Amino acid sequence: MSGKLPDAQIAIQIKTLTSPWFRQLLTYDPAVTLRKVTCPVLAINGEKDMQVPPGQNLPVIRKALAEAGNKNDEVDELPGLNHLFQTAKTGGLGEYAEIEETMSPVAMEKIASWILALPRPPATAQL
């Protein structure tokens, strides 16, 4: 980064990369937790997500939920979308500022239809 960023920005980057939070993020294995989850789960990734690559993450999520015996999960990759669920050309971080779309209608429809399809608990009697 030297020569490409101001020293103050480099110091901020170093502080972030060496923080306990970042170290925990790098070592955390969500599969351990997902193996215990039995409530409904919708796990989605954009196909062009470069921060959380779907090819590496979705199979692990799918496997962990199956190991939990989860019977109400959906794991899906949404074509053409980036990490922020925006329609993207490349998925690169630099593209975020260029995209006017806040969130793809495809992603919103996927989330809404999944929620609406969840089993509803029986209505309780009014007193």
The span between the termini is 66 Å
Helix/strand order, N-terminal first:
HHHEHEH
User: Structural class, judged by helices and strands?
Assistant: mainly alpha
Number of strands: 2
What is the general shape?
A: extended
Q: List low-pLDDT spans.
A: none
What is the number of helical segments per DSSP (H or I, 4+ residues)?
5
Question: What fraction strand?
Answer: 5-15%
- Neighbour order of strands in the largest sheet: 1-2
Helix content: 40-55%
Radius of gyration, CA atoms, in whole angstroms: 19 Å
Sheet with the most strands, sense and barrel status? 2 strands, parallel
The number of domains is 2
Mean pLDDT: 92
Polypeptide structure, described:
The protein folds into 2 domains: 1-31, no CATH class; 35-117, no CATH class. The chain is mainly alpha-helical and 127 residues long. 40% of the residues lie in helices and 9% in strands. Strands 1-2 form a two-stranded parallel sheet.
Short description:
By secondary structure, the protein is mostly helical. It is built from 5 helices and 2 strands.
Q: Descriptors for this entry?
A:
extended, 127 residues, two-stranded parallel ribbon, mainly alpha
List the SSEs and their pairings.
Elements: H1 7-17, H2 20-27, H3 30-34, E1 41-46, H4 54-67, E2 73-78, H5 105-117
Parallel strand pairs: 1-2
